[in-house]
Predict the structure of Cell division protein ZapA.
Amino acid sequence: MKQIEVKIMGQAYLLGAPDGGEARLQAAVQRVDAAMCKIRDGGKIKARDRIAVLAALNMAYELTDAPPANDASAGSAAASAEPQPPALSVAEQATLGALLSRLDKALGDDGRLI
């Protein structure tokens, strides 16, 4: 296993990459970094841990809507296009707001930059 240093939102991390898996790990790091930077740049949330949770939720949500990997025609088109987060309905926005409130309550003052 090889160790590589990566940066996510400017923070350095040392990660273990399986032999031959460095490129996949770098691609995953780039996706996570892009997702977290997009949330941070939105200006509403500044705490790194909250940004990470939201990015993880968004990425997991995208995975639940993704077509099966064995669909070759859709897979090649999806691989070449930049992944876009799905638009949220009013109900989904309310659910996300409720999750954020629960996170706020659970974290207390930890993770807030106010």
